[in-house]
Amino acid sequence: MKRAQNTFLEFFAGGGMARLGLGRSWRCLLANDLDPVKCAAYAANFGKSDLVEGDIAALSLDDMPKERADLAWGSFPCQDLSLAGARGGMSAARSGAFFPFWSLMEGLVSQGCGPRIIAIENVAGLLTSNGGRDFACVAECLAGAGYAVTAAVIDARYFTPQSRPRLFILGFAPDLAPPAADRPPKEDMAPPALLAAQEALPVSAKARWFWLASAPRAGRNMRLSEIIDWDAPEWHAPEQTQKLIAMMAPHQRARIDKLIEHGARRAGAAFRRTRQENGETVQRVEARFDGLAGCLRTPAGGSSRQIVFAIENGEVRSRLLNPREAARLMGLPDDYRLPQSANAALKLAGDGVCVSVVAWLAETVFEPVLGAAKTRSAA
């Protein structure tokens, strides 16, 4: 007998990157986002039948599907928590969207149809915002609703050529048996900030805490040079490239000279940054040539756009990272329909969750746990 598809709710859905990561073996019961441009992209790629466009605070339990979901995914806005943002904490308006989300989860639990798994994704800054109280709040919410709680910091670099560490907080309903361990996984999944935040949890939340036994293996088999468009038309004039190189620190300029000397074909990525040096404010271009791009940001300002440097045949070229390249860094396939506006496409990518990380969680954590539970209930 064919096993029924796993089901999910996707909140703060953006362009549907969690849905893509879960794959075709999962069935969407409801997706919700406030941003009309992201909703248009979602509809263009997945259709409108499951999508509810609008403020999550306007949703009620009457809007929720009657069927119990296997998973509720929530990537709530991170601008108030990210190191690149203002760090207003969860009391700020955007990240305060967590509370309407949680109100829906509590309501579903009270009706006896709480999601079997709740997955909350955000920046690692959630661990330290408001002195760790924001993280404790999320953990307490899950534990208080009867969920076993764990968290891990997972970097997209395991899967795509982008350095993008993100915090994943997972709650498992009492009828599930997640892959638990007595001690933390390897260090980069449980960095000091997570260890400190977990240690500081209230007794009630700590009593329902476990460490995730699974850890991603180094599965990335591509470098930045393999996802950029070498034949793209929008390269800077040579004078602009030299101006950018002149803004690098001496050791980075020396690195470029060495790559040219060795005839390497290499792609690098860089951001413009403002630094204090010898009591003066200076503009720097900070580049990396380790095969990874830096963490994608939303294009709120000129300095947030990542610069690509391409070294080939003894020459250096530069330009801004384009939307399709940003999408590839997030694990989106080339047939994914991006918004027409470059800024809108970059915002969709920069705000999203890495598709490949969601796929790993689905394959190694969610699906085995749910499958075992359904087998037990059928026995």
UniProtKB/TrEMBL annotation:
One of its GO terms (biological process) is DNA restriction-modification system. Its EC number is 2.1.1.37. InterPro entries: C5-MTase (IPR050750), C5_MeTfrase (IPR001525), SAM-dependent_MTases_sf (IPR029063). SUPFAM superfamilies: S-adenosyl-L-methionine-dependent methyltransferases. NCBIfam families: dcm. The active site is at C78. This is DNA (cytosine-5-)-methyltransferase. Keywords: Methyltransferase, Restriction system, S-adenosyl-L-methionine, Transferase. It is an enzyme of class 2 (transferase). Belongs to the class I-like SAM-binding methyltransferase superfamily. C5-methyltransferase family. The keyword Electron transport does not apply. It comes from Hyphococcus luteus. The keyword Methyltransferase applies. It catalyses: a 2'-deoxycytidine in DNA + S-adenosyl-L-methionine = a 5-methyl-2'-deoxycytidine in DNA + S-adenosyl-L-homocysteine + H(+). GO terms for molecular function: DNA (cytosine-5-)-methyltransferase activity.
